[in-house]
Write a structure and sequence with these properties.
It contains 23 helices and 17 strands. The protein is an alpha/beta fold. The protein folds into 2 domains: 10-387, Glycoside hydrolase, family 3, N-terminal domain (TIM Barrel, Alpha-Beta Barrel); 406-567, Glycoside hydrolase family 3 C-terminal domain (Rossmann fold), CATH 3.40.50. Bound molecules: alpha-D-glucopyranose (GLC).
Length: 607
């Protein structure tokens, strides 16, 4: 027992509470009762300790890690680009996360930290981790068992770096593909999103959230209507009646809550002009009341700041609406920082503007999850999990996901599968050898990047070279300037990496340069196989007619061999469109109102 206990007044620290806190000698039933343990701990806590649990700070904003202890912080996150100062390997992440946790365990009540990260397609911030297809590709698999296996792999790699909370699955139901986060959704059909969202939740948490070392707290996001905004504007306004909101956007939350999801992130967007972060009816009456959600609600990154220009007003509005934990990316020296938040919330409670029972409800929910995850018994990391980061077994699962995600939209004269013994193959398009384009946003950095963004991946070009026969001559001509004597041309085109609002588009046309590249390939007279790397369906114009075969590959991640597996016939095409494919860039190409789509949801050739 460390010195802080001896200073604590005896009436605070009863033996029972001490036993409860340390979880020692508890009868099994008691230890397995997170609710009563949370209640007992809550009764010991000061207001400062309670408010601290409701604060999640970005690791980059914590210049002084000791603030975790000083302010009793309940959570730290690493946003899309908040990496440890001393490198991006699994080992340096584990070291950094452990240092934050050590600070929390030195507080009076030793309440362990919950560390969160956007592991949205594998453990995508960490160099060398396996990067899975983004959700739109996983949606094309229509395979819940495979989604569960993929998230199990992700959970093992996340837990291997000491982190036990993933801000996933995103269970948005994107309606307008102009939205930059279309690829974060499994598809435009609520039933598909519900089925795969449940599979992902179970993959991350296990059959139920537990003290298992690789049981990682899932976070269904972003509640509600993030994918229904007018014109697909990110963080925009979803205008519809309640029946439509419930029909399209609510089912995945009903399903994942039934599957035991332990946290839900609230959406930046608004519903009929009211910011979700201030919507008490939907957050408290519907989510916690009607749906009986027992976990806790976390805000999005500085999202409460968007409620009004007055931070203290934002705090009052969001906490009273039902937010339990607030994600704060700002440290001392910046506006709306975590020190200011704590002082403002404390003042609001003192003034009766935020009821004490609202604070207690929030902290109770957070503590219940931490007890359920066994964090009070142990925050140690199983080093065998650390060793699984980027393992060949994990890459094999991701390669299977890539295979099942590919959708064959056209295959004239059975051009595909190509023979491995083809004599002369020309590959065109810079994207064929760009791992960053293959992975898309949320990869190592928030926006992703071009080139070799991470170790251990295989580009589509490298995969082709590893799959064809030694006698085959492969030429890589990014601009299609060398098509001489080609027996077939593979054109790899697509979108540059992006995330969130940076990916919002006013039009959906495939880039003119890509259309021209495919036309150039066609002019060679050789069969043209086009592979599209994109976070959404694009308007193809002549690109489709100029291609003999056309494959939607979405954003497949690091395992390019999965593409070659199907191109050369080792596996059949099984992917089916997870959303309508627009014929032109008309608006509202949604599940509800398809405007003469080029291809319907569910379309996909098998050969
Ligand atoms: C981002 C995203 C959210 C993510 C969070 C933390 O702005 O909206 O999906 O989990 O911030 O990175």
């Amino acid at each position: 027992m460390n010195s802080s206990f001896t200073k604590t007044p005896k009436h605070i620290l009863t033996a029972g509470c001490l036993i409860c806190l340390l979880g020692v000698n508890l009868p099994a039933a008691e230890k397995n009762n997170p609710g009563s343990r949370a209640e007992a701990l809550l009764a010991q806590m000061t207001l400062d300790e309670k408010i601290g649990q409701m604060v999640q700070v970005d690791s980059k904003a914590l210049k002084d890690r000791a603030d975790v202890q000083k302010y009793f912080l309940g959570s730290v996150l690493s946003g899309g680009s908040s990496d440890p100062a001393d490198g991006n390997s699994a080992a340096s992440w584990l070291k950094s996360v452990t240092e934050f946790q050590d600070q929390a365990l030195q507080t009076r009540l030793k309440i362990p930290l919950l560390y969160g990260i956007d592991a949205v397609h594998g453990h995508n911030n960490i160099d060398g981790a396996v990067i899975f297809p983004h959700h739109i590709g996983m949606g094309a698999t229509h395979d819940p068992k495979l989604v569960e296996r993929a998230e199990r792999v992700t959970a093992e790699e996340v837990a291997g770096t000491g982190i036990r909370w993933a801000f996933a699955p995103c269970i948005t139901v994107p309606q307008d593909p102009h939205w930059g986060r279309t690829y974060e959704g499994y598809g435009d059909d609520p039933a598909l999103v519900s089925e795969l969202g449940v599979a992902a939740t179970i993959g991350l948490q296990g059959k139920q959230l537990s003290a298992e070392p690789a049981s990682v707290l899932a976070c269904a996001k972003h509640f509600i209507g993030d994918g229904g905004t007018t014109n697909g504007v990110d963080e925009g306004n979803t205008v519809c009646d309640e029946a439509t909101l419930r029909k399209i956007h609510l089912p995945p939350y009903q399903a994942t809550i039934k599957a035991g999801v332990g946290s839900i992130m609230v959406s930046y967007s608004s519903w009929n002009g009211v910011k979700m972060h201030g919507n008490k009816y939907l957050l408290t009456n519907v989510l916690k009341g009607e749906l009986g959600f027992q976990g806790f609600l976390v805000s999005d990154w500085a999202a409460i700041d968007q409620i009004s220009p007055d931070f203290k007003h934002d705090i009052e509005q969001s906490i009273n609406a039902g937010l339990d934990m607030i994600m704060i990316p700002n440290g001392p020296g910046k506006a709306n920082n975590y020190v200011e938040f704590i002082a403002d919330l404390k003042a609001l409670v003192a003034a009766g503007r935020v009821p004490q029972e609202r604070i207690d409800d929030a902290v109770r929910r957070i503590l219940r999850i931490k007890f359920q995850m066994g964090l009070f018994e142990s925050t140690a990391t199983d080093r065998q999990l650390t060793a699984t980061v980027g393992s060949s077994e994990h890459r094999a699962v991701a390669r299977e996901c890539v295979r099942e995600s590919l959708v064959l939209l056209k295959n004239e004269k059975q051009v595909l599968p190509l023979a491995k013994t083809i004599k002369r193959l020309v590959v065109v398009g810079a994207a064929a050898d760009d791992l960053g384009v293959q992975c898309g946003g949320w990869t190592i950095g928030w926006q992703g990047g071009h080139g070799n963004v991470t170790h251990g991946g295989t580009t589509i070009l490298a995969a082709i070279r590893r799959t064809i026969s030694p006698a085959t001559q492969v030429t890589f001509s990014p601009d299609a300037s060398d098509l001489k004597d080609a027996d077939a041309v593979i054109a790899v085109v697509g979108e540059p990496p992006y995330a969130e609002m940076k990916g919002d588009r006013k039009e959906l046309n495939l880039a003119a340069a890509d259309v021209a590249l495919i036309a150039k390939a066609k002019a060679s007279g050789a069969p043209v196989v086009t592979i599209l790397l994109s976070g959404r369906p694009l308007v193809l114009n002549s690109a489709l007619s100029d291609s003999d075969a056309f494959v939607a590959a979405w954003l497949p991640g690091t395992e390019g061999l999965g593409v070659a597996d199907v191109l050369f016939g080792d596996f059949k095409f099984t992917g089916k469109l997870p959303r309508v494919w627009p014929a032109s860039g008309v608006r509202s190409n949604s599940f509800e109102k398809p405007e003469r789509p080029l291809f319907q949801t569910g379309f996909g050739l098998t050969d």
